[in-house]
Every structure is written in structure tokens, then in C-alpha cells.
Amino acid sequence: MPGQQHAGQQQHQQCEQQGHVVRRRHPASVGKRAGAQQASRPARLLHCASRIESACVSETDLPGWDDVAAAADQLGLASTPAELHGGLCGWLAGGGGDSRSWPALVLADPLLPAPANGDALDRLRTASAAQLADTDFGFELLLPDEGQVIERAGGMFAWCRAFLGGFGLSVGEKKLSDEGEEALGDIANLAAARVDDVDPEGDEESLTEIEEYVRMAVLLLHADCAMGPRHRQRLH
Questions:
Q1: Could you give the dihedral angle defined by the CA atoms of residues 233, 213, 136 and 218, in that order, rounded to the nearest 10 degrees?
Q2: Among 27, 56, 85, which residue terminates a domain?
Q3: pLDDT in tens, 100-140
Q4: Which residues of 202-218 are buried (b: 16+ CB within 10 A; e: fewer)?
Q5: Which residue range(s) make up the domain with 33?
Q6: N- to C-terminal Cα separation, the chain
Q7: Where is the composition biased (Low complexity) (predicted)?
Q8: pLDDT tens string 68-103
Q9: Do 135 and 206 have their domain in common?
């Protein structure tokens, strides 16, 4: 029996040694695994970088003009990005619901399909709603690039016209404050303005001031209709 145990131990040791030998006889397979890991590393890094980039985009960041225009074209909309944003903000400022089907609501066309989840028009909605509710007043107008005075002025006038349309659809019987009534009247005056009255050389600074006024006027109307008097007091 002791001899059998000794023989068994030797056999077990030989099996372990053979196992070690077997594992050590395949450096090529180890190299292949390492090579595959190294080959996949750039892909993993690119994936991580894209996730980091996506995380850096705030939910309050408006999508770009060209992105909104492309998404609108795919949906068959003839409106410009400024008109779409103005109508959307008017709808939200008047107390309209934050719905992914907002183009059908804002453009009063129930046959319009909802934007795809996460596309530029959907992000325009989520960012606009977040900006309007931002207590730091981070609301912005989606307009053509700065430096293009005529195009930007025309975009702002169109934005105001669309805002009035969206606001009228959602405000219903809500009562505005005196400041809100004045702000709405001023936006209506801008909606009636013409690009022909704009001086491309001397009106750039004035245009910036008007944009700032419109921005605050919209926040005031949103406070009147959607946020309540407590939020409105923060605007004064």
C-alpha cells in the first residue's frame, strides 16, 4: 500500500508537471490573446472617449442650427430652426406640455410624426424646457451665427412671430402680470419688424441688446404662465 501511495504521488506530481508544461508550451496563444487585447484597446478608448464627450454635453445645450435644420428636413418641416425654436418656446412659455410630439402641437398639425428619440428636434425640446426652468436664467435663442447681422435679425423677427403663435396656442385663459403684458406687446412689435429696416453696419450692438431683452421677456412670460409668482419675483 505504501508503494502504491508513493507511485500515486509520483503520478500526480507528473500530471501537475505535465500540466505546467502544457500551459507553458503555448506562448503563441498567449501572444494572440495579448495581441487581440491590444488590437481592441483603441476601439475601447474611442468608445470611452465618445461616452465622455456625450457626458460633457449638458441637457441645457441647444443643438446646432444645421442639426435642427437637417432633422426638420427629415420630418418634412418647412420651418427654419429659428421658427421651430420660437414656436416651441412660445408653447412652453404659455404653459403647454413638454411632449415629444411638440411639432404637431406647435404647428397645429396632428398628422406630423413625433421626432425620433434623441434626435436634434427632440434635444431642442428637452434643452429648451430645461433652459426655461433654469433658475440661473440660462435661456438662449436659436438664431443664425453672430456676425451675420441681416440673417440674425431676420431670424430673430421670425423667432418672435413663431413665439406668438406657440404662445397663443397654449396660454388659454391665463392672466398675465402687467410686466408680462408689456413683454408680450414688445415681442409682437418685433414680430412685425422687417429686415429692410436693419442697418448691417450700425445695428449689430442694438441687435444684441434686443436679443437680451427678448430673452428676459420670454422668461417673464414663462414665469407668469408656467412657473408661478414666486419664480417671477426672481426676475426683478
A1: 70
A2: 56
A3: 999 999 999 999 999 999 999 999 999 999 999 998 889 99
A4: eebeebeebbeebbebb
A5: 2-56
A6: 99
A7: 1-20
A8: 999 999 999 999 999 999 999 999 999 999 999 999
A9: yes
